[in-house]
Amino acid sequence: MAGRFVTFEGGEGAGKSTQIARLKERLEKLGHPVLVTREPGGSPLAEEIRSFILNGHAKPLGPFAEALMFAAARIDHLDKTIKPALKNGTTVLCDRFADSTRAYQGSSGSISSETIDELERVALAGTKPDLTFILDLPAEVGLSRAGERQARKGEAMDRFEDEGLSFHRALRQAYLAIAESDPQRCAVINADQAAEDVEMAIWAALQERLPELAEPQKRPLDVA
Ligand code: T5A
Fold this sequence. Notes:
Elements: E1 5-10, H1 16-29, E2 34-38, H2 44-54, H3 63-87, E3 91-95, H4 98-105, H5 113-124, E4 131-136, H6 139-153, H7 165-181, E5 186-190, H8 195-209, H9 220-223
Parallel strand pairs: 1-3, 1-4, 2-3, 4-5
Bound molecules: P1-(5'-adenosyl)P5-(5'-thymidyl)pentaphosphate.
The site of P1-(5'-adenosyl)P5-(5'-thymidyl)pentaphosphate has 27 residues, from α1, α4, α6 and α8.
């Protein structure tokens, strides 16, 4: 059976990486093979594009060109990493995917939703997530978490963290609009609570939406 494709979305510091690690551990305990990957990146070529964009080199080209670069990275990520894993029955947990382009580049206001639809159609070529967790929290809370983590690790702000508060507030609304337009695929999770509570909310949504993943993996002999 093909693997399930689960994506995590949200603004800066929403806790995606934290929750992906927790969900991976739960799924593996049940015997499910899991691949964790991320965007931008997730394949050698896409990681190169990631560095170029997040260092701010593509910013002068404008949001549309940035969206094209994210899409180019996504095409390689899908071909080299995601599709092969899904084909061999692995569950793929992906930190950001196409909704990030719709939310981040779309929030600039200079790319129409029709253009983003078309870009998504071409880049995804039919591979859509089975389930998307949208980790929702006030922009101020997420930015402060991301800032604390950077201070701890001595990292600099990247291209998008450096945008103003109004951009990050618009981003939150963009994600909620995505969830509203595609409620079958998207589960909005309150991320403004303790990591343990976010983890429980994610698990409850997974049990409801993809119940086969919340059960122990069936071995071929169990199926017969
Ligand atoms: N982008 C990406 C686009 O513009 N368009 C696109 O198409 C794509 C794919 C990627 C950037 O690229 C943009 C979006 C991004 O700006 P990134 O480095 O991958 O950059 O950044 P993020 O995906 O934003 O990752 P972050 O690491 O900033 O956030 P996470 O993964 O959501 O958060 P996490 O888990 O690292 O947690 C952040 C901090 O908060 C703590 C953690 O311990 C950590 O210190 N934390 C909590 N604290 C309190 N309560 C909780 N519940 C907590 N959960 C985590």
